[in-house]
Each structure stands twice: as C-alpha cells, then as structure tokens.
C-alpha cells in the first residue's frame, strides 16, 4: 500500500483503542491517534536505506518489537520527569509501546493485502503472507482504506463523545 492506505489502516486498527482511551483520557486518545498515523509509514524507511531489502527486516514482527521497545523506553523516561504528559512511567511506557505496535503493526497488515505480501517472521525463512486483495499502487484500494479509517475515527468520536 501507499501512504494513504497505511494512514487509513492505522486509523482503522486504532479505532477500538481510541474509543477506550476517550473514556479514560481524551487528550491521550488524540495523541495516540496522531502517533499511530505518524508511525504508519515507518517500515517503508527501507526504501531509503541502501543494503536493506524492501519488505524484509522493517516489515517484520522483530521490527515491531524493536520500535515498541524503543518507544516504551522513551515513555518510561518521560514518565519519570516532573511533567508527565502520558502519566507515570509504567503507564507512559505501556502507552508509547502500544502506539508503536499499532502504528507499525498496521503497516504490516496493510501490506499483507497486496500480492507481494510480507514475511512477518523475518529473519526466519517462510512463505510470504498475502491476502492478494489489491496491488500496492491501486489508488482505489488506498483511498478505500483511508476512507474506512476516517469513518472508523468519526464513529469513535461520535460514540465516545459526551453522552
């Protein structure tokens, strides 16, 4: 998928989490939504890195874990400061790591919709996983995903709004 499809998938996957967070802390729900969208295209950094094959290391569960661990560590440090916008360390670390899992994980899910698919178990040799729904460059599929994600976000805002 292209960026538009990845943004939509990130919003779609985040929607149930966003709904739960709206009940607990609306500001955190919006920060989380922005975070998953910001991370939605991170795995495609491999296209700018020489010697890193596309859809291999950065399109895997170990990469999801690496990003989640790094963000969790940042969250832990932020939660130890005098200003704790994400809450105390355990909450901040869990939140940041979760945003990493959803943001990067949603990218992997979107790429599984393409014929090329991905091997989420890299570096273990395995068949790629694909649902073969649409090519990555399919404009209609990319905008359909964006539309579904935007619709899911809108439904969450309506359901999670003041009752």
From TrEMBL:
Keywords: Hydrolase, Membrane, Transmembrane, Transmembrane helix. The chain crosses the membrane at residues 12-40, 60-79, 91-110, 140-160. It comes from the Archaea. Pfam families: YdjM. InterPro entries: YdjM-like. The keyword Membrane applies. GO terms for molecular function: hydrolase activity. This is Metal-dependent hydrolase.
